[in-house]
């Protein structure tokens, strides 16, 4: 039965993942009473089925790949990975899929938590169906923030239920490596899970509809990852798609896949890493004039543009601005500041790089692909610059020429690229591919968001011998070209 009177808060946040928690943290810190609504585990996708478990699987894989090429360590790391130990580490990093620690933090921050499925029920109204079968009504004085994230999108193949496919959730929480694993998809999830499970003992077949891996990155990034996956034993195929897929054998223990080129491949499990869809199908969007299942479009203040007034916000994956946990948390900080300012009756500062504008969603989205080698990128690629009509200089450098890279791994293979805006003479894009390059990314992000003049970068002296010396070499290459 629904509660007779609604509980009133200043702010209601639907979704207690990293994004929702950060919105609630910022609004609570601003003195606004805030409640989080969560239907699954507090901490969300990132903590239990995405960032944390996937990197726990990949860290020993990448560390072993580096160590195996360092003189004096080859023999020490020559044995296969201890799969049970890796999976146990993954379980610890996922808190054994228990959210007690997250709930404790929420309470310590002064935020209320309501367990159950939250749905919009009109302007500033939310209805929560609890696990006990009750309905809790909530009302917001100032704002409702939808932070429900995204889920794996499966292709429209017949017999999907009987196929029992993996999505990213099963790929990061599997209790054992399958002997044979087919992965469909050339993006980040596909290549990371291919890297992890191939190293953990699976025989991986990676199917890419495109002519290359990581199609949203610079081409050399996908080429280097392809090279290393094949060296590790993975079967990487391009320009193919799945026509049919079904289970055969006693108990359906084998997956049989027919490809667009007519070939048939078999495996024990199949992972579809073919994109994401918004978790907005059953959250009451129709009660505020929106279409269930749609992405929620916002302006730079994270306010939903299709709903009158300034009370509804969409933060994180559900708005499709930038599908990264760190970018969603950035949006959460902006949204929290916007909600607090409006609650105080203050005028928003929505200029470029202002406190109330998520400019980085457009100008400087950083991302790391934790493969061997690592891929780190921020800002524009050459393809994106051309599409946007931006006049840029493209500067490349072979990272393997650096003394710091050779110290890191004697057979270092990697490449760096920066894009310089010809008119403004600032960096607008950077891509690094190679072991250990993830730690180069923040410097590139600062250069772009700070709009540091290229001539000023000459005075940012990199330590020797480190991989960060690539910045100096890029500047020299540009000067001498």
TrEMBL record:
Protein's recorded name: NAD(P)/FAD-dependent oxidoreductase
Record keyword NAD present: yes
Cofactor: FAD
Coiled coil stretches, renumbered: none
Family indicated by similarity: Belongs to the class-I pyridine nucleotide-disulfide oxidoreductase family.
Superkingdom of origin organism: Bacteria
Taxonomic classification: Bacteria, Bacillati, Actinomycetota, Actinomycetes, Kitasatosporales
Keywords: FAD, Flavoprotein, NAD
Domain Pyridine nucleotide-disulphide oxidoreductase dimerisation: 365-471
Classification via Gene3D superfamilies: 3.30.390.30, FAD/NAD(P)-binding domain
Domain FAD/NAD(P)-binding: 9-322
């Amino acid at each position: 039965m629904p509660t007779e009177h609604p509980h009133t808060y200043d702010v209601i946040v639907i979704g207690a993942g990293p994004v929702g928690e950060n919105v609630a943290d910022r609004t609570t810190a601003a003195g606004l009473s805030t409640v989080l609504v969560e239907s699954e585990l507090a901490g969300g996708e990132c903590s239990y089925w995405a960032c944390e478990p996937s990197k726990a699987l990949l860290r020993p894989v990448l560390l072993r790949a580096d160590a195996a090429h360092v003189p004096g360590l080859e023999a020490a790391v020559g044995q296969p990975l201890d799969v049970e130990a890796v999976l146990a580490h993954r379980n610890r990093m996922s808190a054994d899929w228990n959210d007690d620690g997250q709930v404790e933090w929420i309470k310590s921050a002064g935020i209320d938590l309501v367990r159950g499925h939250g749905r919009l029920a009109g302007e500033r109204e939310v209805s929560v169906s609890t696990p006990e079968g009750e309905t809790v009504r909530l009302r917001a004085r100032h704002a409702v923030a939808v932070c429900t994230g995204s889920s794996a999108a499966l292709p429209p193949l017949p017999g999907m239920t009987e196929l029992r496919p993996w999505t990213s959730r099963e790929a990061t929480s599997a209790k054992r490596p399958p002997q044979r694993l087919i992965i469909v998809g050339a993006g980040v999830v596909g290549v990371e899970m291919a890297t992890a499970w191939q190293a953990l003992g699976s025989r991986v077949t990676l199917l890419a509809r495109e002519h290359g891996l990581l199609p949203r990155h610079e081409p050399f990034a996908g080429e280097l990852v392809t090279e290393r996956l094949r060296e590790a034993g993975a079967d990487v195929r391009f320009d193919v798609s799945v026509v049919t897929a079904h289970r055969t054998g006693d108990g359906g223990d084998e997956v049989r896949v027919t490809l667009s080129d007519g070939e048939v491949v078999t495996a024990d499990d199949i992972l579809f890493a073919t994109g994401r869809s918004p978790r907005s199908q059953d959250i009451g969007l129709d009660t505020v004039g929106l279409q269930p299942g749609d992405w929620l479009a916002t302006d730079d203040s994270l306010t939903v543009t299709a709903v009158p007034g300034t009370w509804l916000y969409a933060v994180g994956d559900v708005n499709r601005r930038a599908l990264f946990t760190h970018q969603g948390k950035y949006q959460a900080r902006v949204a929290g500041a916007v909600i607090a300012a409006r609650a105080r009756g203050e005028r928003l500062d929505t200029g470029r790089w202002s406190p109330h504008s998520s400019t980085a969603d457009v100008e400087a989205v950083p991302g790391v692909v934790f493969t061997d080698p690592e891929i780190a990128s921020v800002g524009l690629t050459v393809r994106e610059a051309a599409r946007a009509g931006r006049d840029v200089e493209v500067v490349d450098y072979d990272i393997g020429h650096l003394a710091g890279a050779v110290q890191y791994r004697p057979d270092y293979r990697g490449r760096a690229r920066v894009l310089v805006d010809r008119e403004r003479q600032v960096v607008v894009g950077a891509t690094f591919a190679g072991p250990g390059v993830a730690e180069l990314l923040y410097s590139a992000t600062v250069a772009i968001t700070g709009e540091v003049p290229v001539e000023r970068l000459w005075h940012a002296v990199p330590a020797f011998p480190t991989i960060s010396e690539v910045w100096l070499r890029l500047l020299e290459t540009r000067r001498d070209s």
